[in-house]
Amino acid sequence: MTMTEKLTILLSAPRGFCAGVDRAIQIVEQALDKYGAPVYVRHEIVHNKYVVNNLRDKGAVFIEELHEIPSNHNDRPVIFSAHGVPKHVPENAEDLNLFYIDATCPLVSKVHRETERHYKNGNHIVLIGHAGHPEVIGTMGQLPDGGVTLVETIADVDALELSNSDNLAYATQTTLSLDDTAEIVNRLKEKYPNIEGPHKEDICYATTNRQEAVKEISNRADAMLVIGAPNSSNSNRLVEVALNYGCAKAVLIQRAVDIDWEWVKGVKVLGLTAGASAPEILVEEVIEACRKHYNVEVEEVRLREENVEFKLPRVLRG
Predict the structure, then answer these.
(1) Residue 318 clears pLDDT 80, i.e. is over it
(2) H/E/C letters for each residue in the chain?
(3) What is the pTM of this model?
(4) Which of 61, 12, 81, 53 has its CA nearest to residue 224?
(5) Complete domains list, the chain, with CATH
(6) How far is CA 43 from CA 83, 130, 174, in A?
(7) Which end of the chain is more exposed for a tag (fewer CB within 10 A), N or C?
(8) pLDDT, tens digit (0-9, with 9 covering 90-100), for 177-218
(9) CA-CA distance, 242 to 247, in Å (whole number)?
(10) Structural contact between residues 134 and 81, judged by C-beta atoms closer than 8 angstroms
(11) CA angle 74, 80, 83 (to 5 degrees)
């Protein structure tokens, strides 16, 4: 492989950080500025090792559960991750006299409020999402046990046997595949014609934009690299979208060091994108790594502009 070998990188845009991720990271950084270290964070603030390690270096302490906070530190802030938490978590924090700041993405909070509203109206909730994902655990945890039934596939919908089929509403995880979710929703509506949906799609603008942008370049690219964490739902969906829309091969990587150069061999046009919790610095790192192996030309393919911003919690403003 010589440096004269040409590689065109189609850089998908929008890519990388969404407003919810940006806000969550800012919340941790501002809390560190305002209150000093340590600041505790329950679960990964967002699904990205680079981001988490960066915040850890600044003084954030990541924990799985609240009881891990030493009793002499109960005056320290504890931050809940962008994915949202079940209701029992803030209740537990109050019982332990902890000072907490909620970094739940406002678009996830919208799904929480919606499911609560439907439940109060006497509906049973069908949630479309991935079992075990923190966002799904958080959404299901807004309602009493048994108030939500989770479906992941069309087969799950076909297998549903719900006693109160006239009083149903559905909601979705915000980071799903647009195409897969549309199929599941259609099947739900066929099976339960009276099922109520959200006023506006639950799948967030950033997930939508990143998937649409990948569709735009998939059939032009010989291969696609998606930068993101293995446990990041929206990043995994980008790999699936690339493969479904004409790209011969696509793979998820966390950093440039994960690139398999044998896999890249023979590729003339490489698609490149990043999931909603991957910082732009990792995109630059991948492009630089490609420059060491190829004569690289970068063409950014921008589908649309994003200018969404979410306010910080009141306690951190000003």
Answers:
(1) no
(2) CCCCCEEEEEEEECCCCCHHHHHHHHHHHHHHHHHCCCEEEECCCCCCHHHHHHHHHHCEEEECCHHHCCHHHCCCEEEECCCCCCCHHHHHHHHCCCEEEECCCHHHHHHHHHHHHHHHCCCEEEEECCCCCHHHHHHHCCCCCCCEEEECCHHHHHHCCCCCCCCEEEEECCCCCHHHHHHHHHHHHHHCCCCECCCCCCCCHHHHHHHHHHHHHHCCCCEEEEECCCCCHHHHHHHHHHHHCCCCEEEEECCHHHCCHHHHCCCCEEEEEECCCCCHHHHHHHHHHHHHHCEEEEEEEECCCCCCCCCCCHHHCC
(3) 0.95
(4) 12
(5) 6-17+205-302 (3.40.1010.20), 19-105 (3.40.50.11270), 107-203 (3.40.1010.20)
(6) 9, 18, 18
(7) C
(8) 999 999 999 999 999 999 999 988 889 999 999 999 999 999
(9) 5
(10) yes
(11) 165
Could you give the strand order of the β-sheet that contains 60-63, starting from the edge strand earlier in sequence? 60-63, 39-42, 77-80, 99-102
Q: How far is residue 167 from each of residues 99, 118, 197, 207, measured CA to CA in Å?
A: 39, 9, 12, 29
Catalytic residue among 5, 91, 114, 135: 135
148 strand-pairing partners: 125
Q: Is 135 a catalytic residue?
A: yes
pLDDT band at 3 (very low <50, low <70, confident <90, very high): low
* C-alpha R_g of the chain: 21
